[in-house]
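FORM 7B: Structural annotation worksheet

SECTION A. Query
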Amino acid sequence: MFAGSPYLLLGLVLALQVKHFICDGPLQTRAMVEGKRVYGEPMGLLHAGIHLVGTLLVLVVFGLPLWFVAAFAGAEAILHYHIDFTKERIVKGAAWTFTDAYFWWAFTGDQVLHHMTYLAIAAAAIALV
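SECTION B. Predicted structure
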């Protein structure tokens, strides 16, 4: 699918990053942020579910096979949930707030891990060729 089309591949990564902004920004509520601190809490799971739906939509739009869409959207949602949970537990356990440098290190580390997940999805899409 992406053979000979680096622009299509870059479009996929861009679409996943825009999806990430929408799901982690406007669609994320304070209750979701707080819910991510307790493993299995419904609002934290809902946040990961919103990412699952967003990733499904992006991968379908890019014409990837349905087995790929299901597998990678599911894997991304599971990873997203655990990355968020781990970051929230570390931040809460250390009692860091937005005024602490370590808070921002944890926050940006969390975001880098999410974007690395999108790069892995793109790499897997390339491997389909």
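SECTION C. Observations
The chain has a mean pLDDT of 95. Helices lie at 6-24, 30-35, 42-61, 66-94, 101-127.

SECTION D. Sign-off
Analyst initials: ____
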